[in-house]
Amino acid sequence: MTIPSTPQIAPAQEPDENTCPAASLKDPQAATWFWGRSDRGLVRGNNEDRFWLDGERHLFIVADGMGGHAAGEEASRIAIEALNQFFAADAIEAARSGGHFPELLRAALGHANDAVLQTSQTRSEWSGMGSTAVVALLQDGHLHLANAGDSRAYLLRGDKIHLLSRDHSVAAALAEQNHIAREEVRTHPLRNRLTVCLGIEVNIEPHLSRIALQPEDRLLLCSDGLWDMLSDEEIARLWRQYPDAKVAVDALIAAANAAGGKDNITVVALNIGDHDGFSTLTNRTFGCPVSASLDDTVVVAC
């Protein structure tokens, strides 16, 4: 496989054409410390997922579109384009110098929301289209995370898997209100009815967090096509079994297809310890007060 020299959007086409298309050769560890792939699954005739990998800016995105008449494919494409354009190098540097990563992430998802919403109004068949988004930005020894919808971010630290993102769905809300157990969200009939996503409402309030990273941490971004088919425990077991990012991605997608492959499946894996630059990252902290603890990982809700 040839890795292009500049980042680009992963085409939502055949599965083999949607593998790690955006790893930048400017990062010498690009081919080993992160990997991504999207698969159509076994039921859907098209792929409405998109993802973005940028080892130079340490920016990683997964988007899952929705809507008929190819609107879902268009929504996720627009979301990825808008987010990538927003995270210009000078914008990231400005956020770093001022400690404004929460504001940057919030504004970025707001920008993408506007882009999807405005496009949905240009053609009748695109009316009501939308997209999820989960965005991971690694800066200064921290993961800065934002999500809207039910595409997820996981952290594997030691033997434990932690869900870092927040599902914006009716089923997740029921679990938060203790009406159902968290384990029931994956099979609940309202698990795919979203309460927040890009392109539906004029205003959007994404979930934001910041996590202090450790050298052996492993991160995973995915669409619901993965976690809808596999429990967190199954994801963790396979993830631990395959330390190589590419092998882990392939194994997780294969397992989701073996479990039914009812939706498009997108997985992006990052092995922090395999990135030579991690040891040189500073340990500065910015932004909001600490609200929770994940073992000795600082989790900050912004």
Structure description:
- The protein is α+β, with helices and mostly antiparallel strands and 302 residues long.
- The protein has a single domain, classed as Phosphatase 2c, domain 1 (4-Layer Sandwich).
- Strands 2, 3, 4, 5, 6, 9, 12 and 13 form an 8-stranded antiparallel sheet that branches. A 5-stranded antiparallel sheet has the order 1-11-10-7-8.
- Helix 2 packs antiparallel against helix 4 and helix 7 runs antiparallel to helix 8.
- The longest helix is centred in the middle third of the chain and has 20 residues.
- The radius of gyration is 18 Å and the shape is globular.
- The protein starts with 29 loop residues before the first helix and ends with a strand.
List the helices and strands and how they pair.
Layout: H1 30-33, E1 34-39, E2 49-54, E3 59-66, H2 71-86, H3 89-98, H4 101-120, E4 130-131, E5 133-139, E6 142-148, E7 152-157, E8 160-163, H5 170-176, E9 207-212, E10 218-222, H6 224-227, H7 232-241, H8 245-258, E11 265-271, E12 292-294, E13 297-301
Antiparallel strand pairs: 1-11, 2-3, 3-4, 3-5, 5-6, 6-9, 7-8, 7-10, 9-13, 10-11, 12-13
